[in-house]
Design a protein that fits this description.
The protein has 6 helices and 6 strands, in the order ββααβββαβααα. With 157 residues, the protein is α+β, with helices and mostly antiparallel strands. The chain has a single domain, classed as Endonuclease, Chain A (3-Layer(aba) Sandwich).
């Protein structure tokens, strides 16, 4: 049986293959699948926060776990808001340069990345939930409301 040839796409990370046959990039999808089914305790706790406290308030915005986007695996991603939530553990103290590069690459594609430390997710879960709700509310507020709120400070509105 003959397989359909894939079309190579030259991107930032060398040659990535798109189409029905994704053998070259499939390790990212396999890794994301493995990470979804074996989350760290902090990621499992953050998913509970998002699922039980954030998503019921914003039913139009669905979050996905361990989502592959632009060659990176994002801990939590909301496609409608182009919002990524990362839970940082001890390994992120050693790879700060990689995280900066990754965040700048994602921001060039319009994805905002917010990071929470493991300790904050466990010890201050109410703050994390309220901060996520504030971020989503801010991203869904129409731009003219933001302008009126900003200039209203100067004119007493």
């Amino acid at each position: 049986m003959k397989t359909k040839e894939t079309i190579p796409f030259s991107g930032v990370f060398g040659v990535l293959y798109y189409g029905r046959n994704r053998r070259s990039a499939s390790y990212k999808f396999d890794e994301a699948y493995r990470m979804r089914h074996n989350p760290t305790p902090a990621e499992a706790r953050m998913w509970e926060i998002i699922k039980r406290q954030v998503m019921p308030k914003f039913p139009d915005h669905i979050f996905r776990r361990q989502y592959v986007q632009y060659g990176y695996i994002l801990d939590f991603y909301c496609p409608t808001l182009r919002l990524a939530i990362e839970v940082d553990g001890g390994i992120h103290n050693e790879q700060k340069e990689y995280d900066r590069t990754r965040d700048s690459h994602l921001s060039r594609h319009g994805i905002e990345v917010y990071r929470f430390q493991n300790a904050m997710v466990f010890n201050e879960s109410k703050f994390v939930a309220s901060e996520l709700c504030r971020i989503i509310q801010e991203k869904t507020t129409p731009w003219f409301d933001k302008v009126i709120r900003y200039f209203g400070r100067f004119f007493g509105i």
